[in-house]
Amino acid sequence: MFEWLDRRLYRRGFTHEDTRVLLRMQIVLALSTSVLALVASLGNPWGWGYAAGAGLATFNFWWLVRFGQNALSNTGALVGRAVMRFYLRLGGSAVLLYVLIAQVNAPVWAVLAGLSTVMAAILLWGARKAGRV
Predict the structure, then answer these.
(1) How far is the C-alpha of 106 from the C-alpha of 112, rounded, in Å?
(2) Residue 131 DSSP code
């Protein structure tokens, strides 16, 4: 499964191996823990809030990695447009978080736990790079 996902990520433009592995770890971690949260919560709002937070974190992380790769390889006006798109996505994420928490009444702790999957993926990636996992 990991090879298939790696090939897809490479075709999507994630050519640097470390960023591809990190993004792959985030996708797998977010998907697997979201399914686990939904099953463990029997489909109640906590599981859905966790899955929404993990999905939002993965979406933002995907675009952050893409932004980093593009910023390092492009210059001038192209970087300016990439920064503008970055801030537009950041604003969209803020609106989505507001809707999830204030309008949909998703449990705040569940959404925050889902958002933290990025930190867990980064820690796992770092431990793997250090040879400890």
Answers:
(1) 10
(2) T
- pLDDT for res 15: 87
Integer Cα distance of 109 and 123 in angstroms? 20
pLDDT score of 53: 96
CA atoms in the 13 A half-sphere facing the CB of 117? 31
Quote the tokens at residue 68.
């980093």
N- to C-terminal Cα distance for the chain? 19
Contact status, residue 89 vs residue 60, Cβ threshold 8 Å:
yes
Do 125 and 16 touch, CB atoms closer than 8 A? no
Tokens (6 digits) for 112: 């925050």
pLDDT-flagged residues of the chain (< 50): none
Whole-number Å distance between alpha carbons of 129 and 133: 8
CA dihedral 6, 8, 11, 13 (to 10 degrees): -70
* Structure-token match 């820690």, residue found: 123
Look up residue 41 and give its DSSP letter: T
Cα 57 from Cα 114, distance rounded (Å): 7
Q: Please report the pLDDT score of residue 76 as a whole number.
A: 64
